[in-house]
Amino acid sequence: MTGGTTSKGPPPRGFPVEEFEMRLERAQRAMAAAGLDALLLCTEPEVRWFTGFLTLFWQSPTRPWFLVVPKAGKPVAVIPEIGAPVMARTWIEDIRSWPAPQPDDEGISLLAGALRELAGEGGRIGLPMGHESSLRMPLADLERLKAWLPDSAWADATPLIHGLRRIKSEREIAKIAHVCGLASAGFEGLGGWLAEGMSLAEVFRGFRRDLIGRGADDVPYLVGAGAPAGYADVISPPSERPLEAGDVVMMDTGATFDGYWCDFDRNVALGQADDRAKRAYETLWRATEAGLAAARPGATCADLFRAMAAVIEDAGYRAGNVGRFGHGLGMQLTEHPSHALWDRTVLEPGMVLTLEPGLEFAPGLGQVHEEDIVVRAGGAELLTRRAPPELPVL
Amino acid sequence: MTGGTTSKGPPPRGFPVEEFEMRLERAQRAMAAAGLDALLLCTEPEVRWFTGFLTLFWQSPTRPWFLVVPKAGKPVAVIPEIGAPVMARTWIEDIRSWPAPQPDDEGISLLAGALRELAGEGGRIGLPMGHESSLRMPLADLERLKAWLPDSAWADATPLIHGLRRIKSEREIAKIAHVCGLASAGFEGLGGWLAEGMSLAEVFRGFRRDLIGRGADDVPYLVGAGAPAGYADVISPPSERPLEAGDVVMMDTGATFDGYWCDFDRNVALGQADDRAKRAYETLWRATEAGLAAARPGATCADLFRAMAAVIEDAGYRAGNVGRFGHGLGMQLTEHPSHALWDRTVLEPGMVLTLEPGLEFAPGLGQVHEEDIVVRAGGAELLTRRAPPELPVL
Questions:
Q1: What ipTM did this prediction achieve?
Q2: Which of A65, B330, B335, B388 is least buried, going by the fewest C-beta atoms within 10 A?
């Protein structure tokens, strides 16, 4: 829990081939244990985790992208022609493409052929179908694919994918730590320019430009609130209302570096802070401390939730409506697992997590705090620079 | 084709209730024609189109969001508790929520109840399953939902949704025109600061900050290339290589305002331009002119493709590998329809489209051009400020 990132310049972009070899080896070990002959993946983080394929082109919903991971040998990309030159720069060698878009057969016959070859007739194919997953291809095309492969068995690969992705390599941790450091510096610089009379929309604009200027690739997630003492929701676009003395401004940001995210927030008061705001802040700061202390290998996510909830309840508050007190973090703003009573995931070294306790001090009025950590053998290591223990007043 | 946006300040954020009433009326007319008792929607643009619910929180994959559109009466939102305060500010009145995340029942029993009530036992439920669609909920949860509703019939709602969304209202067009104007000004300002020796990564950083400073909410999509005469792919992240004299820099940007996108690119040469680059540029400029002339109500997307392709082929070039020469635009970077031979969609007033011809002048080396238009009764109206007819040399 020494914490904080030093500013020694950005880590290298991309990954060496050995990183992907290590990931594939872990995956194939897990596939063998689960009795899977192949994995079929069609979502951005999963394709990127195995290949390094990084492009903003996923913003376009038109074309599906497929990756087949066989039980032995390297993954095979089945992708639109437009992506083949970029995929060819990764460590993937077997790239099969079609001239997408082509709705009559949007890669499905090509994909069926690859699966038949790599999983075998009657093979068992893992596809993520569980919690937090989505199907980034037309449902009707999945039905077509299944009709092409009548003897294949389909299994839910969600637990397997969660198990792989939740442990980060040191190279991944370095990228997350870097962007956490950039956003920490951005938050610490707020006092230099955030002022009463500005709208939250202006503040967001300034903060986005500031983080990009500091070296973030983008700031795809920025939500927040500015209201007396606390706020009713934590996912809104910014208001055009001028901020006033006594407002508590909360900004929660997901900035990116080389495809990896930070996700944390900071609260500041303008001009003055009332006692409700100060007390809520101090309670959440202590709840986060309890989370930091609890985040040791062997503890569960439920343990983390209980540790933070105890501080909040002891202070006489209700928990917030976010449904959990933090989550995994890495190639996505939020990842499995969840700090909630139902999540018995056991913490292991290499897991990158947010600690995000929230409370309500009046109906529909509350605060949230958030820090990002990596679990080490000895306990939590902060990736963000720790928020101050008392509500800062600008 | 008078073209260009004037800078008269941003249009108002959000939409009046009558906009959503008009959308719902169009939808329910189409549902009656298709024999649907309800629509089930779970993707961001569809939920927002019917409700106005705007949040970046969709970046988190953890929680599904559902909207049920009945054949009569207002839509019903079935959403996580965390989103209820924001949804309550829209025109939607019936909001049913659960304390997500909760993997054992992630809204499915609640959703099943709403569908049973609104579609009736044995009702026919439309769900998008076709081209360009995805399922933003776990596949296993869809199976659970179907098991809760054994008598319901499920139909593909893709053509219905495409038909609704491809015609934009004047309020939507104003938002798209506004962000097209901001990005046009940003591109026109490149000459003031883009220079040899900068890397494309630096140029992207500068361009993102510039557009946000001009009033864009964000620049979620920015891809491009900088290479002698042309480029091999059009979807890459930027390189750190210093740009050199003779490089053609292409930037393709999707910036946003109030949830609406622009999507267009510009090409400029640094210091000097070789004849291959100039001739490719002029050919694509003329191909775009042909697309502008062809984009009249009654023509098809295939007609637009042919008009642009004829110019490229007459000049002796091969078409690029993008698979189409433009597409719909609005709440997403790319939307149905596609300017391709297989797309017989008939142009109608109110359709917002990109014209995006591309060519190769050597294997793996080419250019792309792009403009954004709205189809009017009299023909195409430019939303972007037209690129100059000859390759600009900075």
A1: 0.96
A2: B388
* CA torsion, ordered B4, B8, B12, B17, to nearest 10 deg: -70
Q: Is the pLDDT of residue B5 over 70?
A: no
| 3-state SS, residue A63 | coil
The residue of chain B nearest to residue A334, with distances taken between CA atoms, is: B60
Mean predicted lDDT score pLDDT of chain B: 95
Q: Where are the alpha helices (DSSP H) in chain B?
A: 17-34, 44-51, 84-87, 108-119, 139-148, 158-165, 170-188, 200-214, 275-294, 301-314
**Which among B218, B221, B210, B217 has a CA at the least distance from the CA of B184?**
B210
- Which residues on chain B are in Cβ contact (under 8 Å) with A132? 61-62, 101, 138
Q: With an 8 Å Cβ cutoff, are A218 and B223 in contact?
A: no
Query: Nearest-CA residue of chain A relative to B130?
Result: A138
Residue position matching structure tokens 């997350």: A176
Question: How far apart (Å, rounded) are the C-alpha atoms in residues A260 and A176?
Answer: 6
Nearest CB neighbour to A60, from listed B60, B84, B333: B333
Return the structure tokens found at A188: 């610490």
Which two tokens mark A47? 């394709």
* Residue carrying structure tokens 């070899």: A21
Please give the residue range of the domain that contains residue A363. Answer: 170-382
B116 φ, ψ (degrees, to nearest 5): -65, -40
Q: Is residue B56 part of a domain?
A: yes
Q: Are residues A333 and A370 in the same domain?
A: yes
DSSP secondary structure code for residue B70 in this structure: E
Contacts B212 to A, Cβ<8 Å: 205, 208-209, 212
For the stretch A43-70, pLDDT in tens is 999 999 999 999 999 999 999 999 999 9
DSSP B157: -
Cα–Cα distance measured from residue B377 to residue B383, given in angstroms and rounded to the nearest whole number: 15
Q: What is the CATH number of the domain that holds A304?
A: 3.90.230.10
Q: How far apart are CA A143 and CA B143, in angstroms?
A: 13
Residues in B closer than 8 angstroms to A318, CB to CB, are none
